[in-house]
Amino acid sequence: MKRFVTVALCIFVVGCKAVPGAGPLASDINDRAGRPAEEAERGHRTVFEIVDVDAKTARTVSDFSIGMLQRRFGIGGAVRSAVIGIGDRLVVTIFEAGSDGLFSTQDSKKTEIEVTVQPDGKAAVPYVGQVRFAGRTLEQARQAILAELVNKAVEPDVIVSSAATSSRNVTVSGAVGKPSMVSLGLSGETIMEVIAMAGGPTKAPYESYVTLARGRRTGTVLLQSIVENPSENIHVEPKDQVFVTHDPRTFTALGEVWKNDRIPFGSNDVNLLEAIALAGGGADERIDARGYFVFRYEEPEIVADLLTPERFHELQANGLRPDKDGRYPIVYRFDMSAADSLITGQRFPIKNRDVVYASRHPAVDIAKFVRLVAAPLHAARATQQLID
Fold this sequence. Notes:
Layout (H helix, E strand, L loop, with lengths): L1 H17 L7 H7 L17 E3 L2 H12 L1 H6 L15 E7 L14 E7 L5 E4 L3 E4 L5 H12 L7 E8 L4 E6 L5 E4 L7 H7 L10 E7 L2 E6 H6 L12 E6 L3 E6 L5 E4 L7 H7 L8 E12 L1 H8 L1 H9 L10 E7 L6 H7 L7 E6 L1 H26 L1
Parallel strand pairs: 1-15, 7-11, 12-16
Antiparallel strand pairs: 2-3, 2-6, 4-5, 7-8, 9-10, 9-11, 12-13, 14-15, 14-16
């Protein structure tokens, strides 16, 4: 009898695992989390970790989303002095006290000379020679020219002004009114200012993303976030690239919710509870209230903060790999049976392309297995009754 019971239980467990389902059980996701890639069955699989959605997690994710550009790039060019660069066009105005000097006549005591900074960073000025302009401010260039004119011109004075600053251009492209190269002034422009100079965004802020590329660093943020958080409206720097993308935000709802679909946000932002509601909520008779999950590729700074840098490095050694944008796979677990879930869920932001998955209760698979086993038994019994 003991052997029979043991065998029956094994068949029952294996049978429950084999029944059809819309996705993995919560236990399957929990068991798979954190496992090295080489331990996965049937070859390599994606390595990920699970993080519970609590007050700390919601605050960390929400706060980082607000200050991502400032954290990654700093304030930008506001505190740096504007310097002359290669390709800039300058106007050098030389004044003399006398009327018969090198640069003065009876009609005018000044001469304007337009120069273009060459690839070697220099440009020629009459009676001065090759002057290094690149890397100097306008005042430093003025002082350098003035020093060379002493004892050559009659009580000279010099003014150096910008005619065109091609070395201080920022490329603004994408979903803007007039994609173009925007020349920066001397005061330092912000992201919103250069976008406005390029004709402004063509779509609603909550459906437009701004990507800033500077050297090897990039950062992408919702335009609405820049509008609502002035600290994100950082200053751009020469050679920056600003790309505005129109991308209506959506998330995908799967599992034991009434609406399995790709669902548009339809507003400035959506929190986790709103996402569940937009999907019709969980099916009462099938849902595992402790098994709501959000699958996401997350920013590395957030992953390191949530997991601790040590755990993050350990997972990387075990095969955790970023996507093409440098983000890492992570799964957020949400327990709707918790008393404070209706508060915590309001602070956790859903992001574009998230997958919200509601797992089924294990009892659903048990019921399916029982029905699968019972069906042939009922058929056999009915057949036996007909024979008898």
